[in-house]
Task: structure prediction
Amino acid sequence: MIGRVAVVIPAGGVGARFGRRIPKQFIKIQRVPILTMTVSHFTRHPAVTAIVVAAPESHIERTRRALSPIARRAPLAVVPGGRTRQDSVWLAMQALPDDAEVIVVHDAVRPFITRRLIDAVVRAAAESGAAICALPIAETVKRVRDDVVEATLDRSELWAVQTPQAFRADLLREAHEKARRDSVVGTDDAMLVERLGHPVRVVRGLAENVKITTPEDLRRARRAWAR
Result:
């Protein structure tokens, strides 16, 4: 059974590598900011009771303006983000209600998620405590050092991880607290939970659930949206 779900959207980056004057989450697809597209999936979800977006401190008002068209659908707050994605998730969690049972963490620039995927990840987390979505890697993967191949890895055990990721609220808070005590920065929230020794369930993700990180990603997203 899915209980009260709270959502954290770390959007604290300024997108310096994207080559635009504004952070990439504010770039528009069909006149809608990517961030607005992403968050709207959660404002429409009946189980979501709170959403917190961690935004760049210099873009708090821009973030609020971008979200204002959808802010009435669900309780939605904007807080300043941190130096790293992990810091932003931590700061956003401090603004969540204490009665949240499951916390979902989702990338601000993954706007093509679906209700079905959200449900699958949240349901798996409610059952087992922690869940991610991912896709098996199809390409050959090699470990390389100094531009020389060291080994070809067995791709049958390798998966490319996406978001949303979902966790029992107390488990995610414990994982972040331990990471802060140990000065550990993880590549995703699941890694922090793994450090506790807690198993993380894997739900099959979606090929279209791309993270828009490069100009080419943006061009592909605009073409896909126009179809």
Q: What stands out?
A: The first helix runs from residue 34 to 43. DSSP finds seven helices and eleven strands in the chain. The chain has one domain: 5-226.
